Every structure is written in C-alpha cells, then in structure tokens.
Amino acid sequence: MANVEIYTSPFCGYCHAAKRLLKQKGVTFTEIDVLDHPDRKAEMVNRAQGGRTVPQIFIDGKHIGGSDDLHALDRRGGLDPLLAG
User: Fold this and answer.
1) Domain 4-84 architecture
2) With CB atoms 3.0 to 4.6 Å apart as the test, which of 23, 34, 48, 67 could cross-link to 14 if both were Cys?
3) How do residues 45-76 score in pLDDT, each as one tens digit?
4) Do the Cβ atoms of 15 and 55 come closer than 8 Å?
C-alpha cells in the first residue's frame, strides 16, 4: 500500500471529503493538522509548490493536489493504481 500524507485543518469540509474517500478505499494515511502544528504549514507550501490551502495530498511523495484533484483522479481511474503502490 502507498504512503499517503494529507495536510488538513479541523474545520475544512474539503479535508473531511478527501479523508472520507481515502477511508472508503481502506487507505491508512498520515494526517498533518496545520492548525495544531503551524510550523508544518511552511513545509506543506514548499512541498505543494506554493499550494497554501488545505487539504494538500501526497501519495508516495507525489503531490496530488487538493480534494477536488483527488476526487477527479478517482473518477478517471487513476487513484487506485497509485494507492496500490
């Protein structure tokens, strides 16, 4: 299974939607709450090449984007192969 990391904040509906999709697929992921760990926000922005909004999702170190990007990838059939590692 792939290594999935997701930068989130607790009041973000898009974060909840992305996590729900990952959970439906049985994916274990590392969640980094940038509200609890504000020092990690700069890390997120750097890794996401300037992306400042949450969620920012990474699969095996590859930047996927946000919730809309994750769902679009799934609709195109590209998410499951990435998650399989």
Assistant:
1) 3-Layer(aba) Sandwich (3.40)
2) 67
3) 999 999 999 999 999 999 999 999 999 999 99
4) yes
Q: Which amino acid, 77?
A: G
Please report which residue ranges of the chain form alpha helices under DSSP H. 13-24, 39-47, 67-75, 79-84
- The amino acid sitting at 62 is K
φ/ψ region of 65 (left if φ > 0, alpha if ψ in -120 to 50, else beta) reads: left
DSSP designation for 30: E
Q: Where are the domains of the chain?
A: 4-84
pLDDT in tens, 12-57: 999 999 999 999 999 999 999 999 999 999 999 999 999 999 999 9
